[in-house]
Amino acid sequence: MAGILDRMIRAARLDASLYEEVENDESTLPQALGVVVLSSVAAGIGSSGVAGPVGLVGGTLAALVGWFVMAFLAHYIGTTILAEPQTRSSIGQVLRTTGFAAAPGVIRVLAFIPVLGTLINLVAGLWMIATFTVAVRQALDYTNIGRALVVVILCSIAYLILMGLMALMGMGGLFLVAAR
Question: Measured between alpha carbons, how far is 127 from 83 in angstroms, rounded to an integer?
Fold first, then answer.
């Protein structure tokens, strides 16, 4: 069994064989979840430089929820709306592959660095879109990367809308409740 660090490096390098490997190995789910937790904690630490302890907790939770929402949306969209004839995938396969796709997110631990933080988050975000796209392609057995990218873009749009609504409820929730 390959070590988690080796798998994280392969995932970050967009190694399609890694995603195929974890897709088909149910025993890799704990490692995939470990990668998500590491990446999420890194996001929280990076956020703490700007928002202190609230950033640490909020950044960690937002990254965890973000991965979970993206993985479930990718499974749903990819197996129903944009399925190809050969698409056969379980939610476990998508969770394992997209879990490893979170590997580049560990660089977000450096996002607390003034001025560079925004650039680090941008690089991490774009890199994770790339790894997520490869993960989705492998998990859903797509014949081309374009369809996987469309799934990731649709998931990202839905995720941003969801996060926007949650932010409105968080910031304006008391106002909305009071206005009733």
Answer: 24
> How many Å apart are CA 89 and CA 55, to the nearest integer?
35
**DSSP string covering 141-161:** T-SSHHHHHHHHHHHHHHHHH
The tokens for 140 are: 């859903």
Taking the CB of residue 179, how many other CB atoms lie within 10 A of it?
7
Q: What is the pLDDT of residues 63-86, one digit of tens each?
A: 998 999 999 999 999 999 999 999
Residue 161 is which amino acid? I
Determine contact, residues 110/120, Cβ cutoff 8 Å: yes
C-alpha radius of gyration, the chain, whole number:
17
Rounded distance between C-alpha atoms, residue 101 and residue 33, angstroms? 11
Angle between helices 116-140 and 16-23 (to 10 degrees): 60
* Predicted TM-score (pTM) of this structure: 0.89
pLDDT digits 0-9 by tens, 19-51: 999 999 999 999 999 999 999 999 999 988 877
pLDDT at residue 165, rounded to an integer: 79
Domain boundaries, the chain: 4-179
The rounded distance, in Å, linking the Cα atoms of 156 and 66 is: 9
User: If you search the block for the tokens 């977000």, which residue do you land on?
Assistant: 108
